[in-house]
Amino acid sequence: MPKKNYPSCLAKASHPSRGEFWNPKSLYPYWEIPKNKLLVSRAKELRKAGNLAEVLFWKTFKDKKKLGLDIDRQVIIGNYIVDFFIPELGLVFEIDGRSHDDKLEYDAERDAFMKDLNLQVIRILDIDVKNNLGSVYSFVLETIDKRKKALELFPS
User: Fold this and answer.
1) How confident is the model at residue 55 (pLDDT cuts 50, 70, 90)?
2) What is the domain-level CATH number for residue 128?
3) pLDDT per position as a tens digit, 87-127
4) Which structural domain, as residue segments, surrounds residue 124?
5) CA 104 – CA 140 distance, rounded (Å)
6) Which residues contact 45 (CB under 8 A, 6 or more apart)?
7) What is the b/e burial string over 128-140, where b = at least 16 CB atoms within 10 angstroms of the residue's CB?
8) Which class for 28: exposed (0-12), middle (13-18), buried (19 or more C-beta within 10 A)?
9) Is residue 50 part of a domain?
10) E strand or H helix at 20, and its extent?
11) Which of 18, 36, 105, 130 is at a distance of 20 to 30 A from 98, taking alpha carbons?
12) Does residue 100 contact residue 57 with C-beta atoms inside 8 Å?
């Protein structure tokens, strides 16, 4: 299997808090992602609140059997909280509503930070989740498949 090239801040091969080796089935060393612990209570609040599109997305994808992967919601990455995260793939899904119209610069800065961590950020409009969940479902599955291939899930 070819060696994976991760940013130096993600290059460690063990889980620092437990001394475990990285799960070889995981394609992305998610436990090395920096997290601002001061955001823990805010992430919990966001999980409880959830807007309609986020709740629909969560109910659709939270079952590991559907994706074959765990998906987490309101996850702290650095100084940001992302809507949904598939840790094994380093894949972030953001559900964007009207509130993001005024946050283009913030979103660009945040996306650049995620990209520096080799995370892929996918933005989905909340109106699409509300009105066209079938297409969103297909799009998410396609995106996961592409990300797996990009991370060499199936080595030769």
Assistant:
1) very high
2) 3.40.960.10
3) 999 999 999 987 656 778 888 999 999 999 999 999 999 99
4) 34-150
5) 23
6) none
7) ebbeeeeebeeeb
8) buried
9) yes
10) strand 20-21
11) 36
12) no
